[in-house]
Amino acid sequence: MGQRRRARRTAGTGNVDVNWNSAGEFIAMGGYGLYVWGAYAVTVACMAAEPVLVALRHRAAQRALSDGGRP
Fold it and tell me: Which residue of 13, 18, 58, 67 has the lowest C-beta tally within 10 Å?
C-alpha cells in the first residue's frame, strides 16, 4: 500500500512508459518527436495564416465592390 504505480499507456504493440526523466526525452517523444512537433508546427502555421488570408480576400472583395464589381 502507498506504492505509486508508474503511468503507462497501451500502444499497439504493448505498454509504453509516459514518464519522461528530462526535457530532452519529452521533446524526443519516444522517437516520434519529429512527427509530433512537426504536426504541431503545421497546425500553428495554418491557424496563423488563415486570418491573414481571410483579411486579404475581404479587402479584395471590398475593392471589387467599390470598383463597380470588377475583380
Answer: 13
